């Protein structure tokens, strides 16, 4: 008996020793490559410092100043290159995309497979199905729908003009962008603008409000990524049971929306959106319709796909997951960019004047319009021809790269970039702040100054990354740009924006999970033209 205990003890000691030797080996990754790395802790790598910082991207920017344009950090044991050298990034995001087609597999879960979280062959299948939704022809067809939602927000804003008081315009943008994405992509009339208590909206807001990064669960997964898939599966199962109890056994509890995580709540309800659409055929060709055209009940194995794109299919669960990610990506990003755009307009009267001058030249009716005059609203063709608007929006996104944490790639095979050997599984993060504020890339005017005209000069193709880069850049980029520009045209044609007294002290920019202000307090003044 005693000898058995000793053997077990020796095995344990052996395993622990082996584990620590492996860790030591992991933590020599960058020193073997002669890549600089800030001081780190055994087991946590750089996570302790990152967790205690205001945001990962800001910490990366700080380290870049000390360690240069290419350095390494360990997220737990996962080696991560942090890069602000545009040529290196071009190699990773564009030229060698085949070896870097994924992002961190943090959300690896059977339940959450969509165009954002998937990689390699699975990602190609999703992206291929979804891409046509955002063609120029489709965006033209969507303009009236976007304009319809913008008409609603314009009506709501009137109250604030007549009361001549400052107000937080960001709240209105959020409701509008939620309505726009739901109406354009899924034919779902959320009408959040009239009903801010809409449950879809509240759950999506809850998701963004949740400080996921500071949760113990999230941190544990970061430190020990090896157990990620198992733990996520366990959590998914617990939530499935909860959902089953709420919906089937205790619907009264479900009515109060208790005990369901917002992501699970959304996933569960989105199934009924699909059912409704399947029962009510439509001539619409929106994102949901495109996905339903290729729905399958069969298991999909991307490894053995025959490579023929015409065979690309999506499962019902994948469709739900895509709707979910589009609600998140389509709502928060666009409203936040509009919030920052409004903030900068309130601070820069000369930029404001120039933009209004360009808007006033547009071939649009100026009087109140009836529905018949929809064609006179700014549409795709009109806003696509606005040079100063382009400069302005580009400058907003340069200064506020709101989704910069998504701009990363994971090596799916061993490869060499600019002479540096990168092993499979390694991450490459673009340090977007350092790039967007780099004097060499954006001078001669100080990059800290808001100066739209700097975009008239041709820059390095990787100097401007608000929508990412390469084949996996933001799929909703053109949609977001059209939506934002139409809103700005209609807003500035009717009103001038003035700073509210609380504009600066209530801005409170935070970065968890995406860069966003807390509020943008402005006044709207009716124009006399
Ligand atoms: C101003 C608004 C927006 C910004 C700044 C933005 C930014 C980004 C960024 C930085 C990425 C990662 C790109 C990369 O890794 O190279 C991304 C991906 C993505 N965005 Fe956007 N986005 C915006 C609006 C939208 C909208 C309106 C939608 C949906 C209609 C959308 C859907 C997506 C999706 C699905 C992906 C994942 C694409 C893939 O992995 O293939 N985004 N976005």
TrEMBL record:
Keywords in alphabetical order: Heme, Iron, Membrane, Metal-binding, Monooxygenase, Oxidoreductase, Transmembrane, Transmembrane helix
UniProt xrefs under InterPro entries: Cyt_P450, Cyt_P450_CS, Cyt_P450_E_grp-I, Cyt_P450_sf, Cytochrome_P450_3A
Transmembrane segments: 6-23
Matches recorded under CDD domains: CYP3A-like
GO molecular function: heme binding; iron ion binding; oxidoreductase activity, acting on paired donors, with incorporation or reduction of molecular oxygen; steroid hydroxylase activity
Role this protein plays: Cytochromes P450 are a group of heme-thiolate monooxygenases. They oxidize a variety of structurally unrelated compounds, including steroids, fatty acids, and xenobiotics.
Name listed for the protein in its UniProt record: Cytochrome P450
Species name: Adineta steineri
């Amino acid at each position: 008996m005693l000898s058995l205990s000793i053997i077990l003890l020796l095995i344990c000691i052996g395993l622990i020793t082996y584990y620590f030797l492996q860790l030591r080996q992991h933590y020599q990754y960058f020193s073997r490559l002669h890549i600089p790395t800030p001081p780190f802790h055994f087991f946590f790598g750089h996570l302790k410092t990152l967790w205690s910082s205001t945001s990962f991207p800001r910490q990366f920017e700080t380290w870049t100043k000390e360690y240069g344009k290419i350095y390494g950090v360990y997220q737990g044991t996962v080696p991560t290159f942090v890069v602000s050298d545009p040529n290196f990034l071009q190699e990773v995001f564009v030229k060698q995309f085949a070896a870097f087609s994924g992002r961190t597999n943090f959300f690896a879960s059977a339940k959450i497979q969509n165009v954002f979280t998937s990689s390699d062959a699975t990602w190609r299948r999703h992206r291929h199905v979804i891409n046509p939704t955002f063609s120029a022809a489709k965006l033209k067809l969507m303009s009236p729908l976007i304009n319809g939602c913008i008409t609603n927000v314009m009506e709501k804003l009137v109250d604030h003009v007549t009361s001549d008081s400052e107000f937080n315009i960001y709240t209105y943008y959020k409701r509008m962008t939620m309505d726009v994405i739901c109406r354009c992509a899924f034919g779902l009339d959320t009408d959040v603008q009239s009903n801010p208590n809409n449950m879809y909206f509240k759950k999506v807001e809850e998701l963004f409000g949740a400080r996921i990064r500071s949760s113990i669960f999230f941190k544990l997964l970061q430190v020990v990524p090896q157990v990620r898939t198992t733990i996520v599966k366990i959590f998914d199962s617990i939530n499935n049971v909860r959902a089953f109890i709420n919906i089937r056994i205790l619907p009264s509890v479900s009515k109060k929306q208790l005990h369901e995580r917002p992501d699970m709540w959304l996933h569960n309800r989105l199934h009924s959106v699909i059912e409704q659409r399947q029962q009510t055929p439509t001539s619409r060709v929106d994102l949901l319709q495109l996905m339903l055209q290729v729905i399958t009940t069969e298991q999909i194995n991307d490894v053995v796909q025959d490579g023929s794109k015409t065979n690309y299919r999506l499962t019902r669960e994948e469709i739900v997951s895509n709707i979910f990610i589009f609600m998140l990506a389509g709502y928060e990003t666009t409203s936040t960019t509009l919030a920052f755009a409004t903030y900068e307009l309130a601070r820069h009267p000369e930029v404001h004047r120039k933009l209004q001058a360009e808007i006033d030249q547009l071939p649009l009716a100026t009087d109140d319009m009836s529905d018949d005059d929809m064609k006179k609203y700014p549409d795709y063709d009109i806003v696509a021809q606005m040079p100063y608007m382009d400069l302005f929006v580009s400058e907003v996104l340069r200064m506020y790269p709101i989704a910069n944490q998504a701009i990363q790639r994971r090596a799916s095979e061993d490869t060499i970039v600019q002479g540096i050997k990168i092993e499979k599984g390694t991450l490459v993060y673009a340090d977007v702040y350092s790039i967007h504020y780099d004097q060499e890339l954006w001078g001669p005017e100080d990059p800290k100054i808001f100066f739209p005209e700097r975009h008239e000069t041709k820059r390095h193709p990787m100097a401007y990354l608000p929508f990412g880069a390469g084949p996996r850049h933001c799929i909703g980029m053109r949609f977001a740009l059209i939506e934002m520009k139409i809103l700005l045209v209609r807003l500035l044609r009717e009103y001038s924006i003035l700073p509210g007294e609380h504009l600066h002290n209530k801005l409170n920019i935070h970065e968890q999970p995406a860069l966003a202000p807390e509020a943008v307090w402005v006044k709207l003044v009716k124009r006399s033209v």
